[in-house]
Structure formats: structure tokens, C-alpha cells
Amino acid sequence: MNHVIDTTTPRYQLPFEELPKGFVPWPKILVDFLEREEAKKGFRFAEEYRARTLLRNTLRYFYEDLHVAYRPAEGGLDVLAVGWRDAIAFRNDPNVKVVQA
Hints:
By secondary structure, this protein is α+β, with helices and mostly antiparallel strands. The protein has helices at residues 10-13, 28-41, 47-63, 84-87; strands at residues 22-25, 67-73, 76-82, 97-100.
């Protein structure tokens, strides 16, 4: 499978230091896309599927190929650290997920 890089996303438009930290809401563009897909199918997707899809795509939208430490939050995620050096400090915290987006 080919890896497609979307250079129009914040991940590729913003300097590393300006990538969002703290509460990061689901990007409207991703929520709108999900709602259009639901309209095409004629039903609302299961909440678990919606949450996983929004989480995975939000991480890619802002942090593709970077390490991120985050906690899920209502309506988005709480980003605690971006980049391996900062994110690794959270690796033993059971309440924080550390992933490469």
C-alpha cells in the first residue's frame, strides 16, 4: 500500500513548534467528512467506529510520522507531548497513550 502525504494538513504547513498541544478538538474537516460518509450510507456509524476514526485521522492530520503522547478527551484529545524526546517521558503512565501517528 502506498503512503500518501497530504501537504495541505497542519502537520506539513506548521513548524514543529507550532503543532497543537493541550486540548485538540476533532478537526471540522474530518467530522464533516465522516458525516458525509454516513449520509451516503444512510445510517450513523457506531460510536466506537466514529471515535476510532476521528482519533486516528486527527493524529495523522496534525502529527503524521511523529511520536505523540495523548489522552482521549470528550470531543478530541489532550496532547501532552509531541516528538520522541518529550513523548517518551509518558511511556510508563497507564493513563497516557504514546504512539507514532
